[in-house]
Automatic annotation (TrEMBL):
Belongs to the enoyl-CoA hydratase/isomerase family. It comes from the Bacteria. Pfam families: MaoC_dehydratas. Coiled coil: none annotated. It comes from Mycolicibacterium cosmeticum. This is Bifunctional aldehyde dehydrogenase/enoyl-CoA hydratase. InterPro entries: HotDog_dom_sf, MaoC-like_dom, MCH/BMMD. Residues 24-131 form the MaoC-like domain.
Length: 157
């Protein structure tokens, strides 16, 4: 392709859509990921969370855990919209990631495989903007729901 015909706009992963083209019930999955000790160690370094439940095998066992527990915020991070196709679908209309909330429903340990997804559960008018609310969930390899919550985003109309 000659340089004069090149356009970075032709390198989108999916056809971008507007707020008004989104539908309640659409699901955006992130690739599954098996959490390793290395992931947990890296997150510990970044978060500065040095509670022994996250790295001390004997401390964790003495306090009723089968193994060190992966940081809850690390599990929540698996629901980042950028891990899915959602940011590519909303293209240039994204304004802001407005809020996030979650409940930690089960422990995650190194060796667990996580399956995150976002599902559009509400679309609401916000004046010149539109608000998208997604249910954020993470299941483990045993089909246990280990996290649920919500994200909200503002998009240009």
């Amino acid at each position: 392709m000659p340089p004069s015909e090149f356009s970075a706009d032709n390198f989108t992963l999916v056809t971008p859509r507007t707020f008004d083209q989104l539908e309640i019930g659409e699901i955006f999955r992130a690739p599954s990921r098996t959490v390793t000790d290395a992931h947990a160690s890296a997150f510990q370094a970044v978060s500065a969370d040095n509670h022994p439940v996250h790295y001390d095998v004997e401390w964790a066992r003495a306090h009723g855990h089968a193994a060190p527990v992966v940081h809850g915020l690390q599990v929540l991070a698996c629901t980042a919209p950028g891990a899915t196709l959602f940011p590519h679908i909303i293209g240039e209309v994204f304004v802001s990631f407005e809020s996030v909330s979650c409940r930690f429903l089960g422990e995650v340990h190194a060796g667990d495989t996580l399956y995150p997804q976002l599902e559009i559960i509400a679309l609401s008018d916000a004046g010149e903007l539109g608000r998208v609310t997604t249910a954020a969930t993470v299941h483990n390899q045993r089909a246990e729901l280990v996290l649920d919550g919500q994200h909200t985003y503002l998009l240009r109309r």
